[in-house]
Amino acid sequence: MPKKSTEVPTYYQQAEKLLVAVDCIIFGFDGEKLKLLIFKRKLEPFADAYSLIGSFVHPSESTVDAARRVLHDFTGLEAIFLEELKVYSQIDRDPGDRCISIAKYALIRVNDYHKALSDRYNTEWVALDSLPNLVLDHDHMVTDALEQLKRKAQFYPIGFELLPKKFTIPMLQRLYEEIFERNFDARNFRKKLLSLNVVKQLSEKDKSTSKKGSFLYQFDYKKYNRLSEKGFQFSLV
Amino acid sequence: MPKKSTEVPTYYQQAEKLLVAVDCIIFGFDGEKLKLLIFKRKLEPFADAYSLIGSFVHPSESTVDAARRVLHDFTGLEAIFLEELKVYSQIDRDPGDRCISIAKYALIRVNDYHKALSDRYNTEWVALDSLPNLVLDHDHMVTDALEQLKRKAQFYPIGFELLPKKFTIPMLQRLYEEIFERNFDARNFRKKLLSLNVVKQLSEKDKSTSKKGSFLYQFDYKKYNRLSEKGFQFSLV
DNA sequence: GCAAAAGTGTTACGCTTACACCCATGG
DNA sequence: CCATGGGTGTAAGCGTAACACTTTTGC
Question: Domain containing A49: what range?
């Protein structure tokens, strides 16, 4: 390896710096509908308009750190599924100033969500089919995030991040039906899921949606990781 | 929509700006091996070390513009497949200065590549299995780009961007074997490809690799686009 | 005429899909 | 006792994968 330079080289000094932001597309599932966490801005510019939550990236943090900070400040949650979506860098995308935005999408367990913070920051869960217009290019980010969610959920078990850690199979099926905007046959869905060998059945039942009750399951991350190293391809679709 | 603000709001002014770079992972296929275009740096820091090609993003251009500019300057080519990989933003990733890098991967038709520019800029095509160490986190970028190439090539016909516009089926198969690091059965590969209905056979033959000669084909982008709008899923793997 | 790559069909198996009824329980 | 959602099996069809020999032609 070449030796490490100790001073900032001149051509670094000549380069012009830019504003860098992160914006988070936050998905949640309440057992019925797929939702997005947005907020109503209090400050200008765009006061009273709806926006994704975001922030400028500080020099002392990575973009992931920035996204985690934003998520924590607006939701009170720490460890959430968080993945990069895309960079939005059209030079006129933000009339405030030249600013590139790194969009991240996050999956959140709605149950864990703190109501108090929701009020403090004017955040709202809104169903995807009744979203208001969002500021700047945020609408576009949402469209892209949805596509990405579909693509990703087809081959990775990320849907489980949207459910409580203990979930029932009908719950999971409803989620998949929301994400993929189509229905699944309950027998085939269950059969496929169980044949993948990555969920374990618990002895408890959830009785909140039926009198008979439905067995709870847990996703087995260890087993999944072992299998996928061996070339196993997760898919429920 | 809220009214457009005419002055830069204060909290934009308070935010600290960052250096933003693009780095390009450029894949090529010479008919035999999958290769990467890298260059030997002439300037400090890291003079004589190998690096991906890249540049700082100018305030007057989007990150895609910057990547296109870099690609053009180093290869002389205009329209190349170019897609975002990932943002690298560890605060200490570049000892020169705090700098986030947006990695893009590109697929290039090696035949089109201009030899003159290669000499001018010290660029080299290097087979993936004999890459030298690269500066900064560029090794990591290459690993990630390869994974992404595999993922993407599995369900999108991007492999064709690495071949001449007119190609033979055995050529395509060799490319796929390189990308996926496994062999395919020639009969099944051909059958599957033709059943997808997205390549058209030409009357010409390519005789460069055999005495018998092999029919040339062309990818039919119009047909592919029409099909994929209807939910058709491209896959050769 | 022979070496070297191109081209061609069939069969077995596994996975996916379609489909209808009984079970358990709370009210 | 009945309404509601949970849970179960089978058969048909389709796509995938395995497999070997003939064709062409430049040397």
Answer: 17-155
